[in-house]
Amino acid sequence: MVEERRPQGDASRDHHPHRAGELVLRLAGPDGSPLAEREVEVAQTRHAFGFGSTGFELIPHANGEEDAAALAEDWLGVFDTATLPFYRGDFEPRRGEPRTERIRTAARWFADRGVRLKGHPLVWHTVKAPWMDAMPLDAAWEETLHRIRREVGDFRGLIGSWDVVNEAVIMPVFENEPDGVPNAISRVARAKGRIPLIREAFAAARETDPGATLLLNDFDLSSAYECLIEGLLENGVRIDALGLQTHMHQGYWGEEAMLAMVDRFARYGLPLHLTENTLLSGELMPADIVDLNDYQPESWPSTPEGEARQADELERHYRSLWAHPAVQSITYWGITDAGAWLGAPGGFLRADGSRKPAHDALRSLVRGEWWLSPTRMRTDAEGVIRVSGTLGDYRVVAGGRAAEFAIERPGTDAALAPLTLR
User: Fold this and answer.
1) Calpha distance 251→259 (Å, rounded)
2) Confidence class of residue 15 from pLDDT cuts 50, 70 and 90?
3) What superfamily in CATH does domain 2-46+374-420 come from?
4) Of 141, 24, 135, 71, nearest to 353 (Cα)?
5) Residue 183 has what DSSP assignment?
6) What residues does 167 pair with on adjacent strands?
7) pLDDT > 50? residue 3
8) pLDDT above 60 (res 362)
9) Which one, of 102, 126, 46, 109, lies nearest residue 78 by Cα?
10) CA distances (Å), 78 to each of 11, 47, 75, 81, 388, in order?
11) What is the pLDDT of residue 9?
12) Does domain 49-369 have CATH number 3.40.50.1970?
């Protein structure tokens, strides 16, 4: 095999062999004959690692309610995994009238563009459905289980991953209700206990879509979350991945603190998803704020100094997590400052849609350094090529014919993989 150009995306340059692999392919035409001594082009189409962001901002565009083509281009230029909203108070503000079709239209829009999807969340005590609050506990829980089965079933085949229970550590004691009415989910959690609630919620989701990836997700990364995980595992509850939220409105934690936290949760042997990440490009939230929701300045602009800091911290954050073998996914919590959570300048795009340095910094990693750009190769006399790159999905093209393949395992897979181009 002769390479005419060095591949641009080579994870081995980062010295993280768990992120890279090599596949030996034998290419053949539709009639089965080898494509000998032929020039072909190989390109990566998606990472195995999940580089994600919220897809909330593109729901109106996907539904034809507005034209956000520029935003869509910037989003798709970096991310391959989208989180879609299933907050019950917004998704089903009136009982029996879920906004299924609007979210399903958005899900199809993303899926048609090769984007993986996650639903967030199925069970949470916040952004509640007020009509549930007056229900007896048994009725409220049956309604919740019905909701889990309905959403997972309605989106089976589109959404492959779910935050099943969100923020369970604080769930039984959550009392910060704006209307003063205790929410039904917290009351159920107090009555049932966290472990039975989570066990039953996961069971309902699992029986509805056995192939889905089911997450437990939390912002409380203290020993309380560890104790809850240990209790669930000891009671035989199957968790597919652990969700770890890191909204860093008060400043970047730094590589040492971040990786120490990741190590604590990696010891359970479960894949880790960094589900909600935020780094600011403006003034940081004061360190004495305990609940991030309590900080509500009149104005919170992005600044040139803050944008330079954000780009630097973002690259360090992603590089450190990419290096950790337990981490399978990083989801950034919003690409744009327009409508951002808490009004914070945490996006990669300014409110006017222009790009911050952070956008280009992440793109240079995800679609540059860690990516196999279109690369010309030449097969040998038996139609064989060797393709090296980050784990993920690929496409090979020769003379108008093409085929898809994947590099799924680290290291070299020396067994010849036959591949027919059609």
Assistant:
1) 16
2) low
3) Carboxypeptidase-like, regulatory domain (2.60.40.1120)
4) 71
5) P
6) none
7) no
8) yes
9) 46
10) 17, 11, 6, 10, 21
11) 42
12) no
